[in-house]
Structure formats: C-alpha cells, structure tokens
Amino acid sequence: MNPATENRGLGWRAIQALTVLVYIFMFAPIMVVVVLSFNDSQFGGFPMTGFSFRWYHKLMENQAVLSAFQTSVWVALITAVVCSVLGIMAALALVRYDFPGKEWVNTILVAPALVPETVLGVGLLLLMRWAHQPRTLWLLVLGHIMLALPYVVLVVQARLIGIKRVYEEAAMSLGANRFQTFREITLPLLMPAIVASLLLVFTISFDNITASMFWRPSGVETMPTQILSMLKISISPEINALGTLMIVVTVGLPVLGGGLARYLARSGR
C-alpha cells in the first residue's frame, strides 16, 4: 500500500475516533440524567436500585413545577404566534419590496440573534430601571419576541427567496388581488417554513433561561428558572425527571418541525 494512502487512512480514522469521543462527551451527561430519572432510589446515583416512575408521579404533584410549566407554555405560545405573524410580514417586505432603509431594517431585525443573550438581558433590565418600569410578565413576553423574531425572519426569507415571483404575478394577472394571491399562492408555499419556525421559536422561548432570569417578575418562575432554583436547594431525583421532560420538549419539537416541514414541502410539489 502506498504510504501516503496509508497515512491518509490513519488520519481519517483518527478524525472519526475523535468525533465519536466528542459526541460521547456531549451526550453522555444527558443520557445519565435520563437513566437516573427512572432510578427508584432517593439518591440520584449509580448503581440503580430499581426501575420506577415514582419521580415523574411526584413531579406531577409539585405545584411549583406545574405553575412554572404553565407559565413557560403560555409565554412560548404567545411568542411563537406573534413572531410568526411579524416574521412573515417582515420577510415579505424585505424580499418582495424595495424601500428606503431596507438594509438597516434587515440589520435591526437580525441583530438580536448576533448579540449574546446576557448582554441583551442586562441591557433591557437597565433600560427598564432607567424608565422606572417594573418587571411584568408581558415585558418577559416582549423580550422573548425580540430574541426569537430574527429566526423566523431568516427561515421565512430563505424559503421566500426560493419561491418564484411568477406564480404570484400569474395569480394577479388572472384577477386575484394581493391578499388573495398571498392566501392562495404564497402562504401554502411558505407553510413548511412557517411550521418549522413556529416550533423553533416555541422551543427557543420555552428553553430560555439567560434572559428570563433578568426579565421575569418577582415570584414568577419559568421551567428553566424553576430547575435552577431547585438545583440551588438540593439535587433531588425530581430534577432528573424534570430534565428528561425538558429534553423531550426541546429536542422533540425541532425534530417534529423538521419532519412536518419536509412533509409539507413534498406534498406542495
């Protein structure tokens, strides 16, 4: 065998082994949390004393967790709906029309995705204190909308650029007005991107902790902040169960969104 070919093969095997080790390093702690959530022991650790759902049952009886879950779902739903509506309108304006300051508007809309959440959280908190505005749940929702809106704009823009304008022009040439053209032509073609961005924004809002710590009103907890407050007291097996549920939501929704987007894209062809 050629020495150069042999060295190249060894290099690729080393890269593959390193990749496997990186993935193990990333996902092994997650798998440990999932496995220990079914441990019957009151102390979260190995070896396991038995398989049980007791911590999930106990979690469902924890009123603080249920309240935090309801708050997170309520905030995430409103954020997802508002961001989808605003993101679609912004993407249509940026892709289909020319107007003064278009590049500035695009930069302002995308900027929150480029700035660290900690910087945004502290900045908005200082602004609220300067304006003598107390923290409220609605301000928390507005903050989540500011953080998630860029992702909707980017996803819908990418889809809209691939939609040929001749379809819309053909509909208008046959007598349809702009609203009818959007409803019958543009919206169905945009549906894969809308579904994907809707679920993505819901996940971003539901799983957000950095900004929520700064913006949530006193006495109100979201799921991530509730987990953090529980960790400060003690490491209870309930936290493993709660972490597993968070993993299911934050991983399952994007996967579901990707599957629905592909299905809608294929059915729309």
Compact summary:
This protein has 269 residues and is mainly alpha-helical.
Description:
It is a single chain. The protein is mostly helical and 269 residues long. It starts with a helix and ends with a helix. Helix content is 79%, strand content 0%. It has 11 helices and no strands.
- As residue ranges, the low-confidence spans are none
What's the count of strands? 0
* Overall geometry: globular
Query: Main beta sheet, described?
Result: none
Indicate the mean pLDDT. Answer: 79
Portion of residues in helices? over 70%
Please work out how many helical segments DSSP would assign: 11
Estimated structural class? mainly alpha
Q: Per DSSP, what share of the residues sits in E-state strands of 2 or more residues?
A: under 5%
Q: How many angstroms does the end-to-end distance come to?
A: 49 Å
- Please give the oligomerization state of what you see: single chain
Summary keywords:
globular; 269 residues; 11 helices; mainly alpha
Break the fold down into its secondary structure elements and pairings.
Elements: H1 3-36, H2 54-60, H3 63-96, H4 102-114, H5 117-130, H6 137-161, H7 165-173, H8 178-206, H9 210-215, H10 223-233, H11 237-267
